[in-house]
């Protein structure tokens, strides 16, 4: 059991991480008894499980993920939703209507082309396109706020350990922030200043996700912007 | 005007037309993430070669029936810009462009772990802005960088470099003149972590011994470029890290 790279160092595909009886985590693979990285990212391990936290990558849906998507097609039986993933999602019409009901309603009256929705992935297994649901509390059409898109691989950093980062952001910026696991984030605040502040912070987190002490730096940045804003008002 | 054949490709001191030693590479510049809109991108300068590579994907296969049920489809387009050569080149894909697209795709395919994204495509666009011999190799080197930058899972980076025979001597990383007027050209692509060749082509004539000498020389050159590739990928993120650290000191 030997490790060849330090924790939290940047690794590239094909780099040897370790040799021996480790558990293979995300973005690693075993060949000829050695464990290699398969993506560009940060090397990390917990006990004897090795993994690479990637910098970039496509969003692959997971059941129960909360996502933000855009309606790109309305059919007879449901909506096609773009969830910023290689796979288009389907939101069936049965979501809003009883299957046995004989009255056909115009689906565009409920959700039309270009509408954004907050939804949850109901089913997905890579052989078929993902199915969405909006039946839960708080899900459905988005009516206000601003959208930020960041690489989906940075979402765990945006949320932080047990939500430390996102809770701090919500508190400091006084905004409602809905995080889609697909890298789309909805920010909704009382005024444009708060919203823009939250967006700036989110973009900063995405750009600097691989560095340490990020939560404190973000806090500082927000504080600084607030002071600048208050100063500008009195002048 | 095509450049005339120089009288000697290797001079009395054993130096080549551009002043290099037989085993010396051309100056190399590798950059990653140069295009914002692409999922991954790279820019390569190898001697006078200037090549831009963009990667899109994995994305939904279009048309849909093109997708495979068990893995992603890798598509590759190698193209030389009309202004990339001394004489204007027709922008339409030539026989050569189509063939190189195919061999480059086949050189990259063993490295890409395509089973991760069934029913999708990964598109690689290689655009040669200025050419000076060995563009397929520089294209492969750049393409694997762009794929890694896009966050596509790969077994290893792919590096390519050519060796050949010029004025009776085995040399590495041929430039345009050496390629045109030399006796042989042997481009290879390598996955250095497994010492696995993913592309090997040859034109001209080499004896068996010369072939092995050229092959080993090209492999050594690949390993040098491989280290530069790793640096290029990592430096983008180290730069951000350093920037923060210096800011923190202030």
* Morphology of chain A: flat
Domain count of chain B: 1
- Helical content class of chain B: 25-40%
Most extensive interface, residues per chain? A-B, 33 and 36 residues
What sort of overall outline of chain B do the alpha carbons produce when their principal axes are compared? globular
CATH structural fold name of the largest domain in chain A: Ribosomal Protein S8, Chain: A, domain 1
Largest sheet of chain A: 6 strands, antiparallel
Please tally the β strands of chain B and state the result: 10
- Unreliable runs of chain A: none
Note the gap between the termini of chain A.
64 Å
Kindly provide the radius of gyration of chain A, computed on alpha-carbon positions and rounded to a whole number of angstroms: 21 Å
Order of helices and strands of chain B: EEEEHEHEEHEEEH
Describe the structure.
The complex is a heterodimer of chains A (235) and B (250). Chain A has four helices and 17 strands. Chain A is α+β, with helices and mostly antiparallel strands. In chain A, strands 9, 10, 11, 12, 13 and 14 form a six-stranded antiparallel sheet that branches. Chain A has a four-stranded antiparallel sheet with strand order 1-3-6-5, with no helix packed on it. Chain A has a four-stranded mixed sheet with strand order 2-7-8-4, with no helix packed on it. Chain B is an alpha+beta fold and 250 residues long. Chain B has a single domain, classed as Ribosomal Protein S5, domain 2 (2-Layer Sandwich), CATH 3.30.230.70. Chain B has four helices and ten strands; from the N terminus they run ββββαβαββαβββα. In chain B, strands 1-2-3-5-4 form a five-stranded mixed sheet. In chain B, helix 1 crosses helix 2 and helix 2 packs parallel to helix 4. The chains are: A alpha+beta (235), B alpha+beta (250). The interface between A and B is medium-sized, with 33 and 36 residues.
């Amino acid at each position: 059991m030997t490790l060849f790279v330090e924790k939290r160092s940047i690794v590239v595909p094909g780099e040897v991480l370790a040799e021996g009886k480790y558990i293979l985590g995300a973005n690693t693979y075993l060949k000829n008894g050695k464990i290699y990285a398969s993506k560009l990212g940060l090397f990390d391990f917990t006990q004897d499980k090795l993994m690479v936290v990637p910098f970039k990558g496509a969003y692959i849906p997971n059941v129960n993920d909360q996502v933000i998507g855009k309606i790109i097609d309305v059919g007879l039986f449901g909506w096609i939703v773009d969830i910023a993933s290689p796979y288009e999602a389907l939101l069936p019409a049965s979501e809003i209507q009883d299957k046995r009901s004989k009255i056909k309603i115009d689906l565009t009256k409920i959700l039309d082309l270009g509408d954004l929705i907050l939804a949850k992935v109901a089913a997905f297994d890579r052989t078929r396109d993902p199915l969405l649901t909006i039946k839960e509390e708080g899900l459905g059409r988005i009516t206000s706020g601003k959208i930020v898109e960041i690489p989906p691989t940075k979402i765990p950093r945006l949320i932080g350990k047990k939500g430390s980062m996102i809770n701090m952001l919500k508190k400091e910026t006084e905004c409602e922030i809905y995080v889609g696991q697909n890298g789309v984030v909805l920010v909704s605040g009382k005024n444009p200043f708060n919203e823009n502040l939250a967006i700036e912070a989110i973009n900063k987190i995405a750009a600097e996700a691989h560095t340490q002490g990020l939560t404190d730096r973000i806090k500082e940045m927000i504080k600084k912007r607030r002071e600048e804003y208050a100063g500008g008002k009195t002048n | 005007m095509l450049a005339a054949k120089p009288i000697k490709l290797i001079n009395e001191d054993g130096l080549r037309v551009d002043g290099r030693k037989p085993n010396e590479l051309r100056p190399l510049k590798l950059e990653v993430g140069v295009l914002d809109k692409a999922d991954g991108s790279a820019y390569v300068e190898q001697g006078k070669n200037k090549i831009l590579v963009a990667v899109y994907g994995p994305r939904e296969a279009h048309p849909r029936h093109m997708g495979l049920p068990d893995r992603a489809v890798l598509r590759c387009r190698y193209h030389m810009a009309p202004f990339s050569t001394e004489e204007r080149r027709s922008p339409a894909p030539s026989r050569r462009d189509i063939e190189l697209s195919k061999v480059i795709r086949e050189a990259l395919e063993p490295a890409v772990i395509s089973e991760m994204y069934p029913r999708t495509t990964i598109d690689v666009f290689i655009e040669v802005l200025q050419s000076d011999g060995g563009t397929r190799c520089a294209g492969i080197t750049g393409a694997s960088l762009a794929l890694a930058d896009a966050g596509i899972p790969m077994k290893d980076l792919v590096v390519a470099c050519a060796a050949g025979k010029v004025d009776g001597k085995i040399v590495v990383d041929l430039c345009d003149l050496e390629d045109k007027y030399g006796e042989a050209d042997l481009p290879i692509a390598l996955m250095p972590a497994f010492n696995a060749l993913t592309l090997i082509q040859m034109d001209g004539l080499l004896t068996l011994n010369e072939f092995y000498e050229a092959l080993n020389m090209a492999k050594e050159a690949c390993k040098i470029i491989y280290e530069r590739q790793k640096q290029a990928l990592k430096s983008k993120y180290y730069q951000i890290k350093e920037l923060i650290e210096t800011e923190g000191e202030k």
